[in-house]
Amino acid sequence: MLGRPGCHLCEEALEVIRRVAGELGVGYEVRDLDESPPAERDEYWERIPVTFVDGAPHDFWRVSEKRLRAALTGS
Asked: What pTM did the predictor assign?
């Protein structure tokens, strides 16, 4: 997930990610947009949080638990 400290949508997204990843036994990484390269900040600044699955953007702003689970299980 790409987000920022103090972002309420990021906190909500992280709750979903933690729950789904924990249930499925998969790892995840949280990155701070403020520490990203300028091109990445420009691309995602107004769309955080951004979730990625296998390096590809998956969801913006809100994380759908159903969509995330499907993407992680291949179903």
From this structure: 0.88
